[in-house]
């Protein structure tokens, strides 16, 4: 394989069960470099679990995860596994619904601790890069603020900047705006659109159909651990073929 | 009340209090080490270590401290372990209070939101790094509180070593009580010393809490 043609993220037959409860029943997905894929579907359909398995926070029971030509879920154990997985995770940025900023660190320190401790970047250099990122998400003036002093929208923008500080190859968003007050959603969406414009590869789990329609190159509709329908947003979101997609969208756009 | 007696025995009681302080300090340090090891074992990936921590803690919490002290001090020689009373007291109390402190440490660590571990691991931090850079700093205030509570309990528990002949506050008080037939004054002085030491310990912990416990940022 050459670096030109291989997808940024490639999932083959991902399966995951908790006890006897099968949550992912064989998911295949290809995300080309610079593309944006949105995942929609009812609550409990396995969207979060899928994102969590991509960076091995929830290792799948079967299937393959490839990141830019590298097998993510290698059959390693012990220290070799830890080393491999920590290295791979540095290449994937994750943004959580609940932000999960580190409350004992300032906004700036939230951004710098990763590069300093994990990549050996000098504190001075890390700070310069972090300030650039904070400026990019519009929060340069909040560098020294602790998370408790930030609004939800500001927290999520810091969280996005924190993930970007590791210079990831792909960004994973798990309902990044679901915990926000409605008036704070736009500022976060704006940052995500900006990333999209910069050709960042993104996998976005979202409940916002309009946002998905606007930014996505590809949309997956998941239900009950399976991909029911996928395609470009004009198709999946505007003219879905499957009855289940239609009924989901009807409910979702009605509410 | 015999004030003259009180004045006369106070210097000797102060000396005995120094013994109590030494016992307390050595034991607390030992206890903190034991607690750290137990807490680490309790979160280990090895089921054996986790099991060891659980059984150890349940034994320490499930049997009287005095019995533990007697087993070590009187039973030890049977196994070829002859300790002087002070050493036996330090070891026994350290092993015991370590179990209690570790329970507090474990609770403090578990009280940190799982989202913190998730965020740290997602960035690429390893298990130990996650603990060190993110979990422990956030658990520190609660850990400190638990250490403080246990330190006060420990301070008063040191009285038990009087039963194996260490002349600390309680033993000294008893000796003066027996010699003068005025137990109220003799043991009353001991009690006042304990109270003063307790204030010192709680004051010290409060100082530390102000220094480390109060964080600018609290979990959102
Ligand atoms: N750690 C877990 N243990 C057991 N069940 C889980 C766990 N995580 C998720 N699940 C279950 O998996 C299913 C899918 O959850 P999730 O991936 O969070 O769905 P979604 O994000 O689409 O709402 C749910 O039924 C949920 O209860
Ligand atoms: Mg979810």
TrEMBL record, chain A:
GO MF, one annotated term: ATP binding
Superkingdom in the source lineage: Bacteria
Record localization: Cell membrane
Keyword Transmembrane helix: no
Topology in membrane: Peripheral membrane protein
Predominant location category: membrane
Pfam families, per database record: ABC_tran
Family per similarity comment: Belongs to the ABC transporter superfamily.
SUPFAM superfamilies named in the record: P-loop containing nucleoside triphosphate hydrolases
The entry's keywords: Amino-acid transport, ATP-binding, Cell membrane, Membrane, Nucleotide-binding, Transport
Every ABC transporter domain range: 9-249
Protein name as catalogued: Amino acid ABC transporter ATP-binding protein
Naturally occurring in which organism (per UniProt): Pseudogemmobacter lacusdianii
Taxon lineage: Bacteria, Pseudomonadati, Pseudomonadota, Alphaproteobacteria, Rhodobacterales
SMART domains: AAA (SM00382)
